[in-house]
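RECORD TYPE: inverse folding
INPUT: structure tokens
STRUCTURE:
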């Protein structure tokens, strides 16, 4: 996926990080996972987010965190 899967745009959710092309905040996925829910449960609840987009967002977040720790 060439474009960043997570975007911040003041016109979308007031600049809260969201999945590209949606109005779904990225933090909702994190809250699902922290609560013990599966990625499938999140995708079922938010069908505007594709599996590919969700996985790319998780990978981007992981990569960003790892690079800050190095």
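DESIGNED SEQUENCE:
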């Amino acid at each position: 996926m060439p474009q960043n899967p997570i975007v911040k745009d003041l016109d979308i959710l007031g600049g809260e990080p969201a999945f590209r092309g949606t109005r779904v905040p990225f933090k909702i996925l994190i809250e699902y996972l922290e609560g013990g829910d599966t990625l499938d449960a999140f995708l079922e609840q938010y069908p505007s987010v594709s599996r590919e987009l969700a996985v790319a967002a998780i990978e981007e977040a992981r990569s960003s965190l790892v690079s800050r720790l190095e």
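NOTES: Residues 6-69 form a domain with the Arc Repressor Mutant, subunit A fold (CATH 1.10.10.10).
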